[in-house]
Amino acid sequence: MTPRKAKNVIAVTPGGDITEEMILGYITLFTVPDRAVSASKLNRTWISEGLPHGFIPQSRRSVNAFQVACRSVETRRRTEATKRREIEVDQVHETADKCVYQITVLIRDKANELIEHPKALRVIFDKNTEDITWQRLDADGVDKAEADELGTRIRDFYDANAKKVPAARVRDAIRKLMDACDATNLRKKAGGVYMVPRIAIDPEDGNQFHTKDLLDSLAKVLSELWGGDAEVNQIPCANAESEREMLARHFDINVTDEIDEIMAKASEALQRPDRSMRQDAIGNMLARRKQLAERTERYKSLVGDELEQVVTKLDLLDQQLEAVVLAKAGD
User: Fold this and answer.
1) What is the pLDDT of residues 30-61, one digit of tens each?
2) In a domain, 103, yes or no
3) 248 and 208 in a common domain
4) Number of domains, the chain
5) Does residue 137 contact residue 122 with C-beta atoms inside 8 Å?
6) Alpha-carbon separation of residue 36 from 52, 59, 60, 87, 298 (angstroms)
7) Is 52 exposed, middle or buried (0-12, 13-18, 19+ CB in 10 A)?
8) Are strands 83-94 and 98-109 parallel, antiparallel or unpaired?
9) Average pLDDT over residues 276-301
10) Which pLDDT tens digit goes with each residue over 130-147?
11) Which of 199, 207, 284, 295 has the fewest beta carbons closer than 10 A?
12) Residues 146 and 277 both lie in one domain
């Protein structure tokens, strides 16, 4: 007889069912291809899955898309055994109305110990109309057909990618989501692997929510955008001593590192002759300190650890921030 599957069961053991209440959370692994996606499709899918609106990554500014388009024609290839042809791309200047790049064809001739660098063209981007035009600069060194081919490639790349969101911005949005879920990074600066507690607190209304619902929604978004090339893998993590120790260790590393970064910024401000720091920067530090303290209290109950090092670091941070606030008040 085929056993009937129980609902909401993580696993079955000789001692009985292991339910959601018996796990710490989910070890979550993300894979996001390094390929830009449509901004409109991302916004539509993100909102339809109920993910936080404030985390929706925006498309590049038009001028940034133009800069990337210019960089796309950079090449380096061998034309003969002793010659190498390179296309170099350099920004000339940028104003409120336009951005100008120069494309240079550089030929390294080892046999004759010579470097030729005819200027191919100047490319101009109009920020108001998003029009891309170009001018050939060296009639003798670069023919018109080659200059036009380079200019056309830049314009075509811009047209194909201007309204897209780079994958890096989607990854940044994922990191914000993980922060909102009280997740702990398990790979330090490398990222991509998090321990997400089963229950988290909504920072907007203070209510509890099940993080798996958010993770499932995120998986649908990534699948819609990249198909099978993107993945969100969730591995249930048992509420056992070794798992709690692992989570406490990584939580300690991540939070103390972030506190050290905040303290370094505060110390730098205090060491400046005017001891100045913008009011909004101070406000951001105080708000983040409050978030870290609240998260620490939640993790104490989650991992059964007092997290002494984090508590000590928070006390030191309080002293630094108090000094910054007093210096600002003195100003």
Assistant:
1) 999 999 898 888 988 999 999 988 898 877 78
2) yes
3) no
4) 3
5) yes
6) 21, 9, 10, 24, 37
7) middle
8) antiparallel
9) 89
10) 899 999 987 777 788 888
11) 207
12) no
pLDDT digits (tens, 9 = 90+) for 166-193: 899 999 999 999 999 999 999 877 778 9
pLDDT averaged over every residue in the chain: 85
Both tokens assigned to 326: 């007093």
10 Å CB burial of residue 323 (0-12, 13-18, 19+) is middle
Domain-located, residue 14:
no
Residue-range definition of the domain harbouring residue 206: 23-56+164-238
In the block, residue with structure tokens 């993945």: 231
Please enumerate in sequence order all residues whose Cβ is within 8 A of that of 114, keeping only pairs 6 or more positions apart, or say none: none
Residue 244 corresponds to which tokens in the numbers above? Answer: 């709690």
CA dihedral sign of residues 247, 251, 254, 257: negative
- Angle made by CA atoms 183, 241, 187, in degrees to the nearest 5: 35
- At residue 330, the pLDDT reads 63
Question: What's the Cα-to-Cα distance from 144 to each of 77, 108, 141, 150, rounded to whole Å?
Answer: 21, 22, 10, 10
For 153-162, what is each residue's pLDDT tens digit?
999 999 888 8
Q: What is the DSSP letter of 97?
A: S
Task: Pinpoint the alpha helices (H) of the chain.
Answer: 39-48, 62-71, 144-161, 167-180, 211-226, 241-271, 279-303, 308-330
How big is the chain, counted in residues? Answer: 331
pLDDT of residue 274: 66
The tokens describing 81, both together, are: 């055994």
- Is residue 248 over pLDDT 90? yes
Query: CA quadruple 239, 241, 243, 248: dihedral positive or negative?
Result: positive
> What residues contact 84, with CB distance under 8 A and at least 6 apart?
76, 77, 78, 107, 108, 110
In this predicted structure, the answer to whether residue 124 has a pLDDT above a threshold of 80 is: yes
Confidence check: pLDDT of 14 > 90: no
Give the residue from 177, 205, 238 where a domain finishes: 238
310 neighbors 255 (Cβ within 8 angstroms): yes
Residues 137 and 168 in one domain: no
Q: Is the pLDDT of residue 79 over 60?
A: no
